[in-house]
């Protein structure tokens, strides 16, 4: 028995260890990228929801502003009519 396998002689199989460590590293990196992408997607979804709410709020503000302008125009006409009536009387 002059030839003894590396593991039986107390040596380590460097190739097997490096492949195992490399696979663990790659799997860990893939899991990290997937988790990072997932939370990035959730952040974008939350931003999209907030932006939709702001857009809706802006549309409501514009509609309310238009309604207020219409009411102000009516009041202006009433004030003009009262002023005209006061000029005619006085």
Question: Would you give an account of this structure?
Answer:
- This protein has about 90 residues and is mostly helical.
- It is about 85% helix and about 0% strand.
- It contains one helix and no strands.
- The radius of gyration is 39 Å and the shape is rod-shaped.
Could you report the average pLDDT, rounded to the nearest whole number?
A: 90
**Beta-strand proportion:** under 5%
| Proportion in helices | over 70%
How many DSSP E strands? 0
- Shape label: rod-shaped
Quick one: biggest sheet? none
| N-to-C series of helices and strands | H
Question: What gyration radius follows from the Cα positions, in whole Å?
Answer: 39 Å
How far apart lie the N and C ends?
133 Å
Q: Layout of SSEs?
A:
Layout lengths: L13 H76 L1
Outline of the structure:
This protein has 90 residues and is mainly α. It is built from one helix and no strands.
Which short descriptors sum up this protein?
rod-shaped; 1 helix; mainly alpha
